[in-house]
Design a protein that fits this description.
The protein is α/β, with parallel strands linked by helices. It folds into 2 domains: about 140 residues, NAD(P)-binding Rossmann-like Domain (Rossmann fold), CATH 3.40.50.720; about 170 residues, L-2-Hydroxyisocaproate Dehydrogenase, Chain A, domain 2 (Alpha-Beta Complex), CATH 3.90.110. The protein has 9 helices and 15 strands. Helix 3 packs parallel to helix 4, helix 3 crosses helix 9 and helix 4 crosses helix 9. The radius of gyration is 20 Å and the shape is globular. The protein binds nicotinamide-adenine-dinucleotide. Nicotinamide-adenine-dinucleotide binds next to helix 1 and helix 3.
Amino acid sequence: MTNLNHDKEVTASVHSSKVKATSTEQSLETRIPRIAIVGAGFVGSTTAFALMMSGLAAEIVLVGRNVRRAEGHVNDLRDAEVFSHATRVFVGDFSDCCSADVTIITAGVSQSGQKSRTEGLRETGAIVHGLVNDVCLQNPRGILLIASNPVDVLTYAAWKWSGLPVHRVIGSGTSLDTSRFRRRLAEHYGVASANVHAYVIGEHGDSQIPVLSSARVAGFPLDGFSNELGMSHSESSLARIADQTRTAGVEIIDAKGATYYGIAAALVRIVRAILRDEHTILTVSSRVPESMHLGDVSLSLPSIIDRHGVARVLPVALNNSERVALESSAKAVQTSIGALSEMIPI
Ligand code: NAD
């Protein structure tokens, strides 16, 4: 197990001078829960709605480039207040992010755009670079939660650009993929997804690894659970579930142009773990501890999430082919980090 000790405040070596305290800061203990959402597109606005329905935040700040559109979302959200939870929802700017417990970055380019991978990386990289600087100038204490894609590359870059301790820069990573995987396994066995313990690790993207070897249902390995149910253990069915998990996002985008309900729920789940100091294990992206020998990279592994962000990154029991796949996933993310750093210094 690798402990990312909060007290040591492991920081990126650069840019710490950019992080300045503001007079409006309050201690983590006394302030009311405020969540800032930067980017008011599909993901940002749906996350605001999911957050409002959750009742977790007293204040939700929406920061959008198109202010009129953001105001439209805010007025629409306020119409839901009487039916949900008293929440102050407002359009803000970066100065309103100053006391946010968590700032969620959802700005980016449309998921259905026809841009090349490099062009998409350059464009979203430039957007997130600017936003991270603006947010961190105002809010040196909160947690940065990155949803913009490619999320692992941008989580790594945001950590470097921000100068924040490693545990306070989190990417939504494969939290969404893990939920897709668990639901499909649950359907396969005819049980509730809450009874399936399984993880998708690595890149949130093509090289992700749905880990079958250590997946458990009600404490049983998958072959053992099949035996209990009197059903045959079908490796090909499980391989199909892993494939469907990997391609689920693309299929939704093909059908409706974007994905946003699942990611919004995943983001709210991560926020809940933080605000309520849950010590919940979620597959989020963060800079991988050196002891895991995966290189200088951010990707998803099961991680304990508490009030301070990522408290620990946990290893996963893998078979040989899964370990090889994880190493190659790390290399794929590293290659993209290299490509981004040639366009925008990291
Ligand atoms: P969208 O086009 O609907 O919204 C993007 C928003 O970002 C737009 O409203 C745009 O105005 C805003 N924006 C751009 N530059 C900005 C800036 N400098 N400041 C403030 N706002 C700015 O796209 P979307 O569907 O909401 O997706 C947003 C991002 O989330 C994309 O990168 C997408 O790939 C990613 N995403 C990630 C996951 C995941 O699992 N991590 C899932 C779905 C989408």
